[in-house]
Design a protein that fits this description.
The complex is a heterodimer. Chain A is mainly alpha-helical. Chain A has a single domain (52-298), classed as MetI-like fold, CATH 1.10.3720. Chain A is 72% helix and 3% strand. In chain A, strands 1-2 form a two-stranded antiparallel ribbon. The radius of gyration of chain A is 24 Å and the shape is globular. Chain A starts with a helix and ends in a 5-residue tail after the last helix. The relative contact order of chain A is 0.13. Chain B starts with a helix and ends in a 9-residue tail after the last helix. In chain B, the strands form two sheets. In chain B, strands 5, 6, 7, 8, 9, 11 and 12 form a seven-stranded mixed sheet that branches. Chain B has a five-stranded mixed sheet with strand order 2-1-3-10-4, sandwiched between helices. In chain B, helix 8 (186-194) packs across helix 17 (374-386) and helix 11 (242-250) crosses helix 12. In chain B, strand 1, helix 2 (36-49) and strand 2 (53-59) form a beta-alpha-beta unit. In chain B, 47% of the residues are buried. Chain B has 18 helices and twelve strands. Chain B folds into two domains: 19-134 and 297-320, Periplasmic binding protein-like II (D-Maltodextrin-Binding Protein, domain 2); 137-295 and 356-410, D-Maltodextrin-Binding Protein, domain 2 (3-Layer(aba) Sandwich), CATH 3.40.190.10. Classes of the chains: A mainly alpha, B alpha/beta. The A-B interface holds A 41-44, 61-63, 126, 129-132, 137, 149-156, 240-242, 244-247, 261-270 and B 63, 66-67, 70-71, 73-74, 85, 87-89, 91-93, 95-96, 180-185, 188, 234-241, 244, 248, 368-373, 375-376, 379-381, 383-384, 387, 389, 402, 405.
Chain lengths: 303, 412
Amino acid sequence: MALTGRGLWITALIAPPLAFVALFIVYPIVAAFAYAFYDWQGLLRGEFVWFENFHTVLFVEPYASRTLNAFSHNIFVFFALMVLQNGLGFLLAYALWRELPGARFHRVAVFLPVVLSTIIVAYLWKLFLHPLFGVINQSLRGVGLADVAQPWLGQESTALWALVIAQAWHMVGFPTLVFLAGMQRIPTDIVDAVRMETQSEWVKITKIVWPLVAPSATVVFVLLFVGAFNWFELPYIMAGLDGSPYGSTDVLGLYFYRTAFGNVSAAHQDFGLGSALAVLMFLFIAAIAGFVTAKLRAREIQL
Amino acid sequence: MTRTLLRIGAALGAVLVAAPTLAQDLTFWSWRQEDRAQYEGFIETFEAANPGITIQLETFEAANYNTILSTALAGGTGPDLMMVRAYGGMEAIASAGYLEPLTVEKVPNLEGFAESALQAETMRSDGQLYAVPFASQTQFVIYNKALFDANGLEEPQTWDELLALSQKLEDAGVMPFANGTATAWQNETIVFDLVSSIMGRSFYDDLMAGTADFTDPRFTGALAKLKEISAYFPDGFIGLDYPSAQQLFASGMAAMFAGGSYELATFKTLNPDIELGVFAAPGIAADDEKLVGIYYDGGYAANAAGENKEAALKFLNYVASQPFGQAFANTLNNISTVPGVTFDNPLLGEVAELNQNSIPYMMLVHFRFGEPSGSVLLQEEVQKLMADQTTPEAAGERITSELATWYEPFQQ
């Protein structure tokens, strides 16, 4: 095809964004892949070492157990948020869709925290959870439950849960909005037909609403999966780079940052190991997210 | 006459034309954003004494400074002069060959610096010095003088006296200590703030000689004492982070803060009216040597690939000089490493006095050169100890065995 008229226009419009994507997205990803195969002295690139960095982060102590520890926390966070963020989001969306009293107000209220920056949310929840002056412990003491007041962020049994709850509070509005949009797309004749058949909300949800919002479910599930395994900002601010206390809130994002860029208490930077971790995370997320998307797509019904 | 004028004119013209090539512009990077004004003052003094050399100061956020600096140096856009960290943090940059090695011939004022100060900026593998160390930091106990006076208390001479005065404060409704351990690195500082005297100088010497490790009863016994004194930390202190702990002390709600000399200026800023005192936490008996933990913060270094290296070395010689050290101590309220500096601020004088009896802040000074670092291990184990998830003996066991993966003296 000659580069004239329409063809020239299309080329001129596509080339700059393509170059942009290649330079700022494709190149860094490929570079990170390449970095993972070299030995690094700080920021000085050394020998090509094949898969040694991958072997080290997966099988050599102390890296192996730290990798496993962080990975297991990501899995926990994913399932906990699946219930607290997506599950609750679905119920909230259903309540809003049914136009319960105050629905207009609650539609805004539920979505408002999503607009806040993660930094604000993280500091806010750090204050809520403050052992001495936090609103949570103060309220518990106020109603005579002083024994229930805990140093929430300081103990292994509660620290990760506290982060999960702060995250769910922050983002629950997002799945709510996506589910609500999905529900509003359900044709009214179907809804009316169901009303003739049954009074049971349970039947309406399980037999009609849930199958018909499947496309929304695909979106929020996959985004939550990617988000849970790339989780960084909130634990970084609330628990610190080390995943305090003693690694009980460590997740892959924090662990990757510490390994690649170092930590004041370790003075140890290793781009090779960090890149290997990043590549493993990328492959894992891409593989699972691809598989899950395909599976979930299959159950979507075209209306 | 006119010819002389013409000659002078021609000479002046030549100087003016040549001036831009003679002027030496250097860049200087620092992580002390809060000290920018003071550093600009130091630079002005230097420029006045060395016409033709100009220095451009740039400051960066402290937490990411090493990453920014090492990235710039690797990319060939690093500064001529820079602040570098000490020990492992310095080695990360020096080992890649970015820093100019320093000797007394190149920087004459280095003569007379304390051996331990120079060691902080010396790379272990080649024994070369790479930076002029600038300040030492001391780990000890800071107290609120007004609260001590109001409760009729004095600096403790024995461990039991420390416990007794803590109890007395608690009975009077004052928090004895402000410390919390939710922020990881605070778990390392409190060890050397509170129980340096209990582990004692002999433990440190044996550790260095390779005849003791962290399973030694002198070390585990010290951790047990730390656990004992933590009874006087605030309620829920394991969930209390560093800024909150600082606030508790600065606001006068707590009487003592186990911390470093770098806190003194912060507390004065948070509460200008607070009257501070410092003491070394005591040993078991009154005649046990009272020790503080000490380390060096960082140093000034020159770029090995810099264009105006001679001018850069001139600046390094200036920052190693007594007048600079004196100005540094007076304006920044830090313990300068330069020999012959005196302290106007009585509190600073007291810190310098306490430094006479010290052991190194050892996890930083000796155990931050491999992975896992001694600091990270100690921080985790103290967090566990405070949450009743381990014992001092088990903590010492894990620190020793994990350090043995890279620290050779522990491998036998």
